[in-house]
Amino acid sequence: MSHTIVIGGGFGGIAAALRARKLGHDVTLLERNDSLGGRAQVFEDQGYRFDAGPTVITAPFLFEELFGLFGKKMSDYLTMLPLDVWYRFHFSDGRSFDYGSDMDRTLADIARFNPEDVDGYKKLLARSEAIYKVGFEQLADQPFHRVSTMLKQVPALLRLGSYRSVWGMVSHYLKDPMLRRAFSIPPLLVGGNPFRTTSIYALIPWLERKWGVHFPKGGTGALVQGLTRLMREEGIQIRTQCTVDHITCEGRRATGVRLASGETLTADRVIANADAAYLYRHMVRELPRAARFKLDHARYSMGLFVLYLGVNRTYDDVAHHTIWLGEQYRELLEDIFEHKVMKDDFSLYVHRPTATDDSFAPPGCDSFYILAPVPNLQGDIDWSERAGTLGDAIIKALSATILPDVEKHIDTRFHMTPEDFKNRYLSEHGTGFSIAPLFQQSAWFRFHNKSEVLDRLYLVGAGTHPGAGLPGVVSSAKVVERLLKEETP
Ligand SMILES: Cc1cc2nc3c(=O)[nH]c(=O)nc-3n(C[C@H](O)[C@H](O)[C@H](O)COP(=O)(O)OP(=O)(O)OC[C@H]3O[C@@H](n4cnc5c(N)ncnc54)[C@H](O)[C@@H]3O)c2cc1C
């Protein structure tokens, strides 16, 4: 049987392993951490549980498809709970805005900010649907390693205004400055500055409206567990605590991997779910000049500071997902993405899973994770010093707004910085989302799913087409499945 090695057990690697298995391959998945999920690790402490990474599940059909490959149903492995309020935005002037599944309530909330924006939002949504139909339905699962494929799509991309930024598109339809901020946030969920991210990502509002926003009962970790069980049932070999040092090859053809332990494994092909930039920088010997140029000129997503708090009281009026915005917006994002510096201001995403699922904390308690976009390691920040003070400042700011007195109720507190992303996941420059979702780094311009460097090497995950975020990385495995079907002996 044809043997496929998958490097990395993030969602992209898991989906690719399952799709290769469905094609009849003998599949081995190698993961350097103790458990699968990649950025979707689960931390536990003193009866509190924390999903470390992704928490907003959009497009659940993409996961259902993976179970469906083997005639199984996701509902036999886990329960997806649809959320009613998707995000509560908390603005620095004290106002808040609920965005969710009930369209009438969303429109009424928009009207409180600016009645003219009700119509603007409907137009934005119609635009988002048009972009979704091309960007997601037609392009997200298509291979883009041939320049001819890209050229064919250029007219459609230009028609949709993909050269514009998400901010540019949102501002075209909405007038209220706070609503502009709220609706331009989505690129941050995939590692982009809304002022520079291609407006292809303006498809997200329609993606959410069409499929809803979900949370798996038991958290994203439960989704990882369900998929891990499926992989084991289907005979995929899983090895954890197993770091790949480099890809072995004969001439231009990948032949397997060499582990950090010194062991060599051979295979007919390798699918890498390792960070694409890290892969080419460290795991492939001898890069051709064109590939080195792409790597040297890549622009990266931001880093993340994630604070985990177990709190011995509940905050019942805090929604499951809160976007807490500081005073600055454009300036803050320019500092983080372009100048790679941190000043005093920050904006936060606050996850309160206990709003939906009380298994995340002991009775009468809340589990929180609080995420702040920060410069990646291309900036000059000493995280061993900065993490403590940033954590304190975040706790103080939340205590003064949506989590009164929280500092008096903390049972457990720990954090992750860009250094941890680098060390734990081998993420180049410690980014949260690999290379940035810019127009000049999309589709053919992104790292190709069929390696441009080695034959029989394929790429899945955030740094390759279509990009970061769970829908993106799971779709990248569909691209690789198509490529595997085209493979010549
Ligand atoms: C804090 C945070 C919150 C997020 N929130 C959301 C959200 O709510 N919704 C959403 O859709 N997306 C979200 N995202 C983005 C999303 O989580 C990621 O884009 C996605 O999970 C990345 O998946 P991936 O397949 O690229 O692999 P990763 O998750 O990066 O996994 C890659 C795996 O490969 C392993 N690996 C790397 N190198 C090697 C090697 N040499 N040998 C062996 N193993 C190796 C790593 O250890 C890792 O486990 C979030 C991301 C973060 C960090």
TrEMBL record:
Metabolic or biological pathway, per its Swiss-Prot or TrEMBL entry: Carotenoid biosynthesis
Keywords: Carotenoid biosynthesis, Oxidoreductase
One Gene Ontology biological process: carotenoid biosynthetic process
Keyword presence, Secreted: no
EC class of the enzyme, as a word: oxidoreductase
Gene3D superfamilies registered for this protein in UniProt: FAD/NAD(P)-binding domain
SUPFAM superfamilies, sorted: FAD/NAD(P)-binding domain (SSF51905)
EC number of the protein: 1.-.-.-
Any one GO molecular function term: oxidoreductase activity
Pfam family, one: Amino_oxidase
Domain Amine oxidase: 12-478
InterPro entries referenced in this protein's UniProt entry, alphabetically: Amino_oxidase, Carotenoid/retinoid_OxRdtase, FAD/NAD-bd_sf
Keyword Oxidoreductase applies: yes
Protein family according to the UniProt entry: Belongs to the carotenoid/retinoid oxidoreductase family.
NCBIfam families: crtI_fam (TIGR02734)
Name this polypeptide is given: Phytoene desaturase family protein
Organism of this sequence: Larsenimonas rhizosphaerae
